[in-house]
Amino acid sequence: MLVLGIETSCDETAAAVVRDCKELVSSVISSQTDVHKRFGGVVPELASREHLERIEPIVEEAMGRAQVGFDEIDGIAVTVGPGLIGSLLVGLCYAKGLAYALGRPIVGVNHLEGHIYSVVFDNPPVEHPALALIVSGGHTHMFYVPRPGQYKIVARTRDDAAGEAYDKVAKMLGLGYPGGPIIERLAREGDPRAVRFSLPKISDRRPDFSFSGLKTAVSKYVRETGLQPVKEGETPSQAIKDLAASFQDVVIRSLVSTTERVAAEHQPKTLIVAGGVACNMALREAMSAMAERLGIPVYFPSRHLSTDNAAMIAAAGSVKLAAGERAGLDLNADVSLRL
Ligand code: KG4
Ligand code: ZN
Predict the structure, then answer these.
(1) What is the residue-averaged pLDDT of the chain?
(2) Is 286 in the pocket of ligand 1 (CB under 6 A)?
(3) Does any ligand 1 atom lie closer than 6 A to the CB of residue 137?
(4) 103 CA to middle of ligand 1, Å?
(5) What domains can be seen in the chain, in order of their start residue?
């Protein structure tokens, strides 16, 4: 079974072809980072316009790389939420038009379920019950997955997502966008014990996350020490590297300790860590060490499938199509779709 996946929920226009639910045939991602960079974050109106221009060539490229004709596609999977409404609608309308023209079935996929499926390509089969942590720019959510397709949210961020905190701190320090990869690189040369930030505390002891207090603490530190943001073309100072390392250390310790607590309670057979922040090697190492302590295997997507892509949408959609699920042409987008 060949499935074409389409993803346009935020600022990546992506298309992919997946065979038999887990074999990646082709994956094309067109990132709009350059368009949004100078605004320090995604501008929704610009994002939809870019998707509109890119969607057709990106789908064509994915099909070309897969070396399959449109008549060989058995179904189409498209992200229907959560995400930016204008962005979602571009992918959805294109996918519906294509499904109608080809006479092929279409299914809608929740973007978060997509991220969970991003691990199917490069890991052994997921054993259930599983515990999935999605850490991205828009989400820091943990789901208990007793069986495929069934999700119970067990932890979420109370305020900012982890990736959002990386992006905001990077902006504060004049480091550019997206902040995650830049902070990770600088942190490698910094001392994580240089600045003592406390771990976020949740007063009611629920296993939730919170990153806005840490962001405020970084901003207060910058103000009080008079640390200057990095100017364009300037090499970041050791003080900036130390701050990056200290910030990242708290983010990772918070993600790992909460995941460890929930994992110890739920005893999953597999741990999944996905989403843009899962690109971070320091996070991968800390999560792997924790999983080893608990004796649970941890699966990460390969790094190019950690950030938004359509392969994960095609994989999640393939399972639905194989189970006979079909959406009508009245399929709609939902910006705050829940899993
Ligand atoms: O999954 P994704 O592409 O989009 C959303 O669904 O949000 O994640 C993007 C987020 C951004 O906030 C970015 O700063 C973060 O993932 N990110 C990282 C790294 N690479 C990307 N965060 C930490 N370390 C990284 N290496
Ligand atoms: Zn995402």
Answers:
(1) 96
(2) no
(3) yes
(4) 36
(5) 2-117+305-322 (3.30.420.40), 130-300 (3.30.420.40)
